Every structure is written in C-alpha cells, then in structure tokens.
Amino acid sequence: MTSFRPFRKKRSYTLPVLIILLALGLTYFSGPVLQGARVGLQAVIYPFQYTADAVWRFTVGLPGGILALRQQAAEIVKLKEQLAGQAARLTILEELKLENARLRGDLSFRSRGYAERLLAAAVVARSGSPWPGLIEIDRGASHGVKVNMPVVAQTGLVGRVSEVAPFSAKVLLVSDPLSAVSAVVQRSRVLGVIAGYSPELLEMKYLGTGSDVRAGDAIVTSAISSLFPAGLPVGTVTSAAKADVDLFYQVKVRPAVNFSALEEVFVVL
122 in helix, strand or coil? Predict the structure, then answer.
C-alpha cells in the first residue's frame, strides 16, 4: 500500500534575498542610473523606516515619559504645599504687624500722663447676645482688680468692672443699656448721662431745653463722676434734636471705642 505524504509548499526566500542584494548594490555602487534607482528605492522604503523608528522611539521612551510625568506631578504637589505654607506665613506676619501696632498704641496711651495706675488686660470672652454688653478679661482679684473699677482703651472709655473672680473679671460696657456714665459736652460743658442705645450707638440723656449741644461735639467723662476719671473720651455727637413737646434733647453719640474689635484694655486701679 502506497502512503502519500501531504503536500507541503516550500518557502521561497528568493524575493527577500534579491531585495537585500539590490539595496546593497544601490548603496555601494554609484552612477546616474543606479542613483535614480537608489532614490526611488529610498522613497519606497522611507515610510517603513519612519514607522519602525517611531515605534522604537515610543517603546523606548514610554517608561521615561511616565517617570517624567510622575516627577512633574510630585513637583507640582510640592510647589502647592510650599505656596500654602507661604500664605500661612504671610497671614501670621500680618497679624503680628497689627498686634505690634496695637501694642505701640497701648504704650503711647500709658505715657499720656494719667496719674492712675493702669493694668493691661486681654479680652478673652464676650457675651453671646447680638448686643454684647459684657466682656471678660484675663485679670482678676489676684491682680488687684475690684468691682466698679473703670476700664479704658487707647481711644476712650470702655466701661466698668461688674464682677470679679480670682483670675478674671467681667466688664460692663458703656454700650449696655444698664450702664450709666456721668458725662459732659466738652465744648459747652453741658452735663448729661451716657447710656447704651444700640450695639454701636450711645445716648446722652437729660439735656434740658437750654442745652448747647450739636453734632460733632466731643463727649467726655464728667468731673462729678464717682467712678470714672474726668476727661476720658466717651464719643462724638452724631445728632441732637428736640421736639416742642419734649423736655429733653434726644442726643445720639458715636462711641469713641469700637467695642466689637476690642482685644486689649486697661483697668484703672
């Protein structure tokens, strides 16, 4: 019995060999005809060369590109952290600058010739109501603070001590409706009583029909006051009006102290 082997087509390497020999011949032999053929062959082969070179460059450069992107991302994160740190430092420096200005003002205030001894204190708390009539300071009985002692700031009268603990005290502000300060119109020497009218406005009461008061007048503490030294700035008159049926003027006063921005005060011992 005859056995048949399956037909297997033999591979032919003739064409590739001819192409290689042709390329070598065109490379090493010169001449007008060969030069033109060489140019044509290069034009045919160039797209394949370019593609192969691009694939090679991409394959070789891909890991390096990924590494470079990671390095750039890390540098960006580091720069953002440094920028945030610089912003925080600038904020701290600005706060220190403002604190330095306040302390310079405090020193200037203490050297204005007050005969009384001034005890510096920091504001540590405020009343939680929309109308802050009380503040708490970090000085108390152990520092010599007593009830009804006057409390002042650089710009004028703050209030009086209303409650004392060993290491802290509460201060009733001039702006509180329960506060009452004997005061005088600095220009005309007209007497009255200052009390709180609103969170940012005071009222001067009991100025009679013949009182000489007008907008812009400075109001200071009176010499007849039993609690406060005379001449402390209280505020400035913003309006003074009286209807025909009224017995007293309605006088509104802008306080000399910005109570919402108080950070440091002085207790007059």
Answer: strand
Q: How many helices (H) and strands (E) are present in the chain, helices listed first? A: 2, 12
Query: And the tokens for 47?
Result: 């797209």
118-268 in CATH: which number?
A: 2.40.10.340
Per-residue pLDDT of the chain (269 residues; tens, 9 = 90+): 455 455 455 556 675 666 666 655 555 555 555 555 556 656 666 666 667 666 666 666 666 667 777 778 788 877 777 776 666 566 555 655 665 665 565 555 555 555 458 888 999 998 766 666 899 999 999 999 999 999 998 888 999 999 999 999 999 999 998 899 999 999 999 999 999 988 889 999 998 878 899 999 999 999 898 899 888 899 999 999 887 777 888 899 999 999 988 888 999 88
Q: What is the pTM of this model?
A: 0.60
| Token couple for 88 | 């925080």
The candidate with the shortest Cα–Cα distance to 172, out of 205, 140, 149, is 149
Q: What are phi and psi of 139, to 5 degrees?
A: -130, 140
Q: Do the bridges between strand 250-255 and strand 118-126 make them parallel or antiparallel, or are there none, so unpaired?
A: unpaired
- Cα–Cα distances in angstroms (integers) from residue 21 to residues 13, 15, 25, 26, 195, in the given order: 12, 10, 6, 9, 113
Q: Where on the phi/psi map is residue 160: left (φ > 0), alpha (ψ -120 to 50), or beta?
A: beta
User: Do residues 196 and 130 make contact, with C-beta atoms less than 8 angstroms apart?
Assistant: no
